[in-house]
Structures are given as structure tokens and as C-alpha cells.
Amino acid sequence: MSRYEKLLNMIMDFNSSIRLAIISDTSGEILWNAKRKDTTLKIPLSETKKALRREASDWVERCKLEDRNDIGRAMYNISSFEKIKRISIPIDAFHLLFISVDNEPLTKSKTKSYGKLVEMGKIMSIVDFVNTFE
Questions:
Q1: Which residues span the domain enclosing 64?
Q2: Would you state the pLDDT for residue 69?
Q3: 131 within a domain of the structure (yes/no)
Q4: Does residue 129 lie in a domain region?
Q5: Does pLDDT of 107 surpass 70?
Q6: Is residue 55 one of the residues assigned to a domain?
Q7: Residue 132 belongs to a domain
Q8: Which residue from 74, 75, 112, 116 puts its CA 20 to 30 A from 26's CA?
Q9: Domain count, the chain
Q10: In angstroms, rounded to a whole number, what is the distance separating the alpha carbons of residues 67 and 98?
Q11: d(CA 113, CA 106)
């Protein structure tokens, strides 16, 4: 099992609200993926592939920005919708991790809810752990 497959397995096992996890290359091509069995994709895979290509290009620009300014390393990007969150994380210079997470509020309430919190610290810890196996 490659370290990328190990990463996908660990991410999917980490939290049941993770619907889909994808490893792509820097051109946005899907190399590995895992989808929860009971999940229906809310966004067609063809649209996700387009998003991966855009995201790969955006990461190049983020890296240029961090090089030109004293802001530190770009760590991850989250796009949040009412029902899902889409997260992209650079794994290394050649690969991105893309995660789709349920964003449904845990309980229905009369006050406005902006969805679930994403445990980025834990997700980043898994990415860092798997990267030690290069």
C-alpha cells in the first residue's frame, strides 16, 4: 500500500462526516480516491475534477504569494457550502489532498447555524504522520 492510499484510509477512518477523499497531482488528475459507501455525491465527479484543476492552479499562486511575503507556508484551503465543505491540502510538491465533508449542523436549532467545525488540526496531523513515510 502506498503512503497515499494509507493517507486516504486514515482520513476516511478518522471521521464519519468525511464523504470523499482524493489525491490528485498538480494538474488536477485524480490518482487515488476513497468514497464512503453510503454516500451519494452532491457534486458530480466531473465537476469535482474541474475543481481539482482549478485548485491545483490556485495552490501554485498561493505558493508564489507565500514566497513573496512573510506570511508563512500555505497550509490548507476550505470552501464552505451549506451542506458540504471542500478542503484542499498540499501533501508535497506534486500532490494535493482533497476532502469533501458533511456540513449539516449536528442539531436543528432556531438560531442560525454555519455547519460543523472541521477538525483541521487532526487532519493535518494525519497528513504530517503519513508524510514521515516518504
A1: 3-124
A2: 75
A3: no
A4: no
A5: no
A6: yes
A7: no
A8: 116
A9: 1
A10: 23
A11: 9
